[in-house]
């Protein structure tokens, strides 16, 4: 091979091209073969950046403080080395039975998700590893019996952990691993005192994992309580190229939110599954009833529903049974940007796990009394939604942090996604009171903070160029549908949904397992039937399509405006008969024969 000569006619040295670092496989991480079989069943080919870095460090016994975006595989990053360590300890002749790992999570939904992931990874381990979820609603005696056999991994909230520690049901003498998942959220839920008590119950040398999508200054408290010289993993830069979320905003009037969402779903402007975030529970049902007018099915997800129903909605959504979820994240949007106020739990032990089936009392006037909601609920954090293509912020959250967690539901695990947010300018606020919401007053200030925070991460929030003039033909239909969604209808839909979900929960679970053909009764996107539906609204005529575009669709035939076309004629006949009776004349519904009714003497 000829080499290039320099100015002194001396051959230059050949410089090698930079070699890209190779991504290790799960086999290279030295995990137990039984766990590798579970990973293969999950169809994972290579570890994510957080898994590739955290697993070797965890196997060395290091304490880890990891920040990685939502959907980057943080759960597997701490579960796999813990399960590998437990399998190694059990193969030792000197092994004594004990609870080896405690995983603290802020919500029941996240606890169920972590438990399911652990069971999936250990599917080929036989009975070697047992995982228990303490957040399930069950009798204390049943829970004590399950803990008496020393499960290898325990998943619980801090409050539930303290309850079982105080009763003596949970013993942490042989604990070797502690995980606090969504650590910043655990702190914001007011578990400070519980965490301090847990730290006192732990022996020295327990390996600690603190993982979260965001790491704030408040985590210094957790580091001081549980960690000893932790390794800090911040993987935002490495994960920038593994996927992304295209972010757009649309500035519109308050009633135009409903016009836009109607056009988006009716004209199929977005493809795939979508999560629509709204500001409160009432707004959830108002939007659901509005979409039902056009034949658009959706299901709701909020803290008022029983936990079993929430988990069932998420599971069915991940299985592509539903395409649209209307969700609230009222615990995520509490508080203003930068105030740093923590939510306080009033009753630590008794109400920490709360009643799953909580109701919000509603007075005859429609106002809500102060009521308890499930404080272990947060839809935009922790819960694993799969293959979500679009996040639609129907109502903007009150902070940039909540916005980040919302859009983290899409663009997960290297995929791409879209986030669209509706913004109410100040000059259009409270111009349409029936559709107004108080939080919309600060949309422009929150948007400025969102743009600033996203620019720091190298992301752009772009305006969505949507020509509202092309939707003028839809305004009458939007107003017609919105007119029927009254405050009373929203209240009735909310009450009916809650009652139905309570009936569908654990009481009927066994029945539907034995009678799968009746499983349709468990669907969460059924119509509420509290608003009169108008069949013609479910179809879009050609003349309403933007730009005069012809709609290619099957012939749906004539759609009448009334249920009975003859009903109008009957009403007219009845009115005519009443008028004639008032004049004292007898009216026959049959057509009179003029020859038979002729009177030669005249009327007199």
What do these coordinates show?
The chain is an alpha/beta fold and 604 residues long. The chain folds into 2 domains: 27-238, Rossmann fold (3-Layer(aba) Sandwich); 243-335 and 362-541, P-loop containing nucleotide triphosphate hydrolases (Rossmann fold, 3-Layer(aba) Sandwich), CATH 3.40.50. It is 34% helix and 11% strand. The protein has 19 helices and 14 strands. The chain has helices spanning 33-41, 49-59, 74-90, 108-121, 140-148, 158-167, 183-188, 192-201, 219-226, 236-239, 256-266, 281-292, 307-318, 400-407, 443-456, 475-484, 487-504, 506-514, 567-582; strands at 64-67, 101-104, 131-133, 153-156, 177-181, 207-212, 231-234, 244-251, 273-278, 299-301, 324-328, 388-393, 416-423, 461-463. The strands form 2 sheets. Strands 3-4-2-5-6-1-7 form a 7-stranded parallel sheet, sandwiched between helices. Strands 10-11-9-12-13-8-14 form a 7-stranded parallel sheet, with helices on both faces. α14 (400-407) links the parallel β12 and β13. α14 packs across α15 (443-456). The radius of gyration is 31 Å and the shape is elongated. The termini are far apart.
């Amino acid at each position: 091979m000829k080499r290039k000569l320099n100015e002194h006619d001396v051959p230059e040295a050949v410089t090698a091209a930079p070699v890209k670092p190779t991504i290790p496989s799960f086999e290279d991480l030295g995990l137990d073969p039984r766990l590798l079989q579970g990973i293969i069943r999950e169809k994972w080919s290579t570890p994510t950046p957080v898994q590739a870095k955290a697993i070797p460090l965890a196997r060395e016994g290091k304490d880890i403080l990891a920040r990685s975006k939502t959907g980057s595989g943080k759960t597997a990053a701490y579960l796999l080395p813990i399960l590998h360590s437990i399998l190694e300890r059990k193969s030792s002749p000197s092994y004594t039975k004990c609870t080896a790992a405690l995983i603290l999570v802020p919500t029941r939904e996240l606890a169920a998700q972590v438990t399911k992931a652990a069971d999936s990874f250990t599917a080929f381990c036989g009975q070697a590893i047992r995982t228990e979820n303490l957040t399930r609603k069950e009798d204390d005696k049943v829970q004590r019996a399950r803990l008496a056999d020393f499960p290898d991994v325990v998943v619980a909230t801090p409050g539930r952990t303290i309850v079982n520690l105080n009763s003596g049901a949970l013993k942490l003498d042989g604990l070797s691993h502690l995980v606090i998942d969504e650590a910043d959220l655990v702190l914001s839920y007011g578990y400070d005192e519980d965490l301090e008590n847990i730290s006192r119950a732990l022996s020295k040398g327990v390996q600690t994992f603190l993982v979260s999508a965001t790491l704030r200054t408040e985590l210094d408290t957790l580091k001081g309580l549980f960690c000893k010289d932790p390794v800090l993993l911040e993987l935002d830069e490495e994960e920038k190229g593994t996927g992304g979320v295209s972010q757009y905003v649309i500035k519109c009037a308050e009633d135009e939110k409903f016009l836009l969402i109607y056009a988006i779903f009716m004209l199929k402007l977005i493809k795939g599954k979508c999560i629509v975030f709204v500001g409160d529970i009432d707004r959830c049902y108002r939007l659901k009833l509005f979409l039902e007018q056009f034949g658009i099915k959706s299901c709701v997800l909020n803290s008022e529903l029983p936990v079993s129903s929430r988990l069932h909605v998420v599971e069915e959504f991940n299985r592509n049974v539903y395409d649209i979820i209307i969700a609230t994240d009222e615990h995520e949007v509490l508080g203003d940007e930068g105030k740093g106020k923590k939510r306080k739990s009033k009753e630590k032990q008794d109400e920490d796990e709360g009643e799953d089936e909580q109701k919000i009392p509603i007075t005859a006037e429609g106002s809500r009394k102060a009521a308890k909601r499930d404080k272990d609920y947060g839809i935009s954090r922790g819960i694993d939604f799969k293959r979500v293509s679009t996040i639609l912020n129907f109502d903007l959250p009150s902070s940039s942090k909540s916005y980040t967690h919302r859009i983290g539901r899409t663009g997960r695990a290297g995929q791409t996604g879209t986030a669209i947010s509706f913004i109410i300018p100040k000059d259009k606020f409270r111009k349409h009171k029936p559709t107004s919401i108080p939080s919309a007053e600060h949309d422009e200030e929150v948007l400025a903070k969102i743009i600033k925070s996203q620019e720091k991460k190298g992301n752009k929030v772009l305006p969505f160029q949507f020509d509202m003039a092309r939707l003028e033909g839809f305004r009458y239909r939007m107003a017609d549908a919105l007119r029927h969604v009254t405050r009373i209808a929203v209240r009735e839909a909310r009450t009916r949904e809650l009652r139905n979900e309570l009936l569908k929960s654990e009481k009927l679970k066994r029945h539907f397992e034995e009678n799968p053909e009746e499983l349709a009764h468990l669907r969460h996107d059924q119509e509420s039937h509290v608003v009169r539906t108008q069949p013609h609204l479910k179809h879009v005529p050609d003349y309403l399509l933007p730009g005069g575009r012809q709609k290619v669709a099957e012939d749906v035939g004539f759609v009448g405006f009334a249920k009975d076309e003859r009903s109008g004629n009957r009403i007219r006949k009845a009115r005519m008969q009443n008028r004639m009776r008032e004049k004292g004349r007898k009216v026959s519904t049959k057509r009179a024969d003029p020859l038979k009714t002729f009177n030669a003497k005249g009327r007199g």
